[in-house]
Amino acid sequence: MAKISIKAILRKEDTLRLWLDNWCTHNKTEVCISDPSGKVVYGNPDLLHDSLSIPLITGDAIVARVWSKSNVLNQVWDVLNMLITKESEKRKLGAEVLHLYQELNIIYGFAESLGEAISTQAIAEITLAHSTNSIPADAGIITLWEEKEKTLAVPAVTGEQLFDLDLLAKNTSFLFQIVLNGQSGIITDIEAIKKLGLVAPNVTNLIYASLKGKDQIMGAIVLAGTRSEPFTAAHLKLLVTLALQSSSAIESALLFEKNLTEIRMREEAMQRINEVIKKFVPNEFISSLGKKNITDVRLGDQVEKIVTVLFTDIRDFTTLSERMSPEENFRFVSSFNEILGPIIREHKGFINQYLGDSIMAIFPNRPQDAVLASIGMQRAVRTLNRQRKEQGLPLINAGIGMHTGPLIMGITGDEHRLDAATISDTVNTASRIESLTKYYQSPLLMSEDTVKRIPNNSNLAFRRLGKVLLKGKNNALSVVECMNGLQESISTKRKENLEDFDKAMELYQQRKFENAIALFNKVLDSDPEDHTVKVFLKNAEKYLNQGAPKNWNGAEEMLYK
Amino acid sequence: MSLKILIVDDEAHIRMLIEQSLEELEDEGVEFYTAENGEMALEVIKEETPDLIFLDVMMPKLNGMEVCRRVKQEMGLSQIYIVLLTAKGQESDRQKGLDVGADIYMTKPFDPELLLEKARDVLQLP
């Protein structure tokens, strides 16, 4: 605290001079006041030589001397002493207020910096920096209890190397003691701690405050000093205040970090679930419904679209499977599906359902996508068969059928069990066409509804196989065969024979069976492998001999499914 | 002539705090004057012509901005160094203060050491 100056008192107390003047006049005497250096600040300097003086003292310092020859001296001294005491008290109070204000300033600044920190690491560092700035410590650490690892971590260290962190980590009992007691204090008797080597030999005392959360002790802040004067109660009070603020910041940070981890874990889990679900319900199905995610899907969501529905089926699978164990069977079907799946996706289709040895796929964009995918699948089956032939396994025959028409994709079921479902006659028809591949002995069939939506310049070659009347249907369906997927030599021959075949079909439908038979035979002579022709030839011969059925209009009536 | 500092704030404890922060300058012959509103401040300025003024912005009877404007622009006392003091969060006043001629701007709560440092700097005391 600065010394009290008599000159300042004379200046501040502006009526003092006037009172002194009046008092001296009234008592017909003189008074002189000198400052500690002997300089006269009031009155006649001559008095310094031959009069009495009394010193004015605060604490142990002389503030001034009052000189006079009369007993007025005592009265003036009383007044001045009162003023000096008042000033001294005011200063003392002022110093205390300033000290509090400085602390407030430290806490304010600390709160401000804490506000910018999010991680416990940053908070710990800021806490240490502010603590060592406001408390005369030479080093400091912050230790926090790690719930997950069940260890005491030291997220922040500052100052000189007064703590042995390696030893602290190994010998956690010291930190534990401090953390677990949950109190704050000053340790001056630190010989035991020094002996353990936890702190440097020149450390004279430690000061610590615990970091407490709402209902648990989170850790502690420990500062070390090397000076001879120990930490004071005022230091401890300040450290506790800083620790209190730091605690709530750390607590929110921990909560924030915990929430963040949980959110991240939940997101990862969601992503994994979505990836699995995607394999069960195609993304295309969900996006067709105008939804981004399976979780957005609700019972009753639906959309109607013109699509091409495709069915594949392994011919004579029953015979094939009889020779295999259930496990071999499963593996066989799986490996088959693994070959066809990618081809379907490659052509912008998606697999709606696996039904044992058959696949139902949907092509929501262009019908030729489905045809091109089928051609690819036929090629893949041929490749597979070449391998099977080498291994001495029976060859696989697959039939593919498709139909284009409106389809409702939707979510059915009840509130407890939902399923992605396609409800449409288009699906039934596509399935029926697929089964016709057996009847017509043709690997790839489709309806005219599919073909008419394919542009003429598509480079696809079709062969019309007349009409069929499916069981339970009133309208006959035109069936078309695609020749592109066949082996090159076979498809070339079929294309050459197309004109004769078409003509034969025309005659056949006109009930001119004799002429039809002749032409069918011509086609068969040139292409003995054309099993489809054999079917028509057989029918024509039957109708020629037994007569065509009543009301026969050229459409084959399919009585089975 | 001795160096003079004028402290203007309507709150007594802030005046005391500033005076206390600068206390050691008194030993070096610096004289302190205080005023608790703008009008009183102008009177002291006219009589004493201080070298440095710590001036609170929000005060009854003539706020700090106005005092600053008058001192710097009307009274022709631009040599007086004026430190404007205002509450934290009123930083928008900063430009306004500098526009009316304040030399520097400090926010409350101020750092007492910084205040002393500034005063020494302005008064060219070692």
**In percent, how helical is the residue content of chain B?**
40-55%
Major beta sheet of chain B, specifics?
A: 5 strands, parallel
Pair with the biggest interface: A-B, 17 and 15 residues
Task: Give average pLDDT of chain B, whole number.
Answer: 89
Please report the total strand number of chain B as a whole number. 5
What is the 3D shape of chain A? rod-shaped
Tell me, what is the CATH class of chain B?
A: Alpha Beta
Which regions of chain A have little confidence, pLDDT < 50, spanning 5+ residues? none
Label the structural class of chain A: alpha+beta
Helix tally of chain B equals 6
Instruction: Report the CATH architecture of chain B.
Output: 3-Layer(aba) Sandwich
Helix count of chain A, per DSSP?
Answer: 18
User: Which stretches of chain B are poorly predicted, pLDDT < 50 over at least 5 residues?
Assistant: none
| C-alpha-based Rg of chain B, rounded | 13 Å
Give me the CATH superfamily of the largest domain in chain A. Answer: Nucleotide cyclase, GGDEF domain
What proportion of the residues of chain B form beta strands (DSSP E)? 15-25%
Widest sheet: strand ordering of chain B: 2-1-3-4-5
General form of chain B: globular
State the gist of this model:
Chain A is α+β, with helices and mostly antiparallel strands and 561 residues long. Chain A has 18 helices and 18 strands.
Question: How would you portray this structure in words?
Answer:
The complex is a heterodimer of chains A (561) and B (126). The mean pLDDT of chain A is 86. Chain A is rod-shaped, with a radius of gyration of 51 Å. In chain A, strands 10, 11, 12, 13, 14, 15, 16, 17 and 18 form a 9-stranded mixed beta sheet that branches. With 561 residues, chain A is α+β, with helices and mostly antiparallel strands. Chain A has helices spanning 6-12, 16-27, 47-50, 72-115, 120-134, 165-170, 173-181, 191-195, 233-280, 283-288, 317-322, 326-346, 367-390, 425-440, 448-451, 488-509, 513-526, 531-546, and strands at residues 31-34, 40-43, 52-58, 61-68, 139-146, 151-159, 185-187, 205-212, 217-225, 302-314, 350-355, 358-363, 398-414, 417-423, 444-447, 462-470, 477-482, 556-558. The termini of chain A are far apart. Chain A folds into 3 domains: 6-98, no CATH class; 117-258, 2-Layer Sandwich (Beta-Lactamase); 284-454, Nucleotide cyclase, GGDEF domain (Alpha-Beta Plaits, 2-Layer Sandwich). In chain A, 31% of the residues are buried. Chain B is of the alpha/beta class and 126 residues long. Chain B has a single domain, classed as Rossmann fold (3-Layer(aba) Sandwich), CATH 3.40.50. Chain B is built from 6 helices and 5 strands. Chain B has helices at residues 12-21, 24-27, 38-48, 64-74, 93-99, 112-122, and strands spanning 4-8, 31-35, 52-56, 81-87, 104-108. Chain B has a 5-stranded parallel beta sheet, sandwiched between helices. In chain B, α5 links the parallel β4 (81-87) and β5 (104-108). Chain A binds chain B through residues 1-3, 5, 8, 11, 91, 94-95, 97-98, 101-102, 104-105, 108-109, and chain B through 13, 16-17, 19-21, 23-24, 26-27, 31, 109-112.
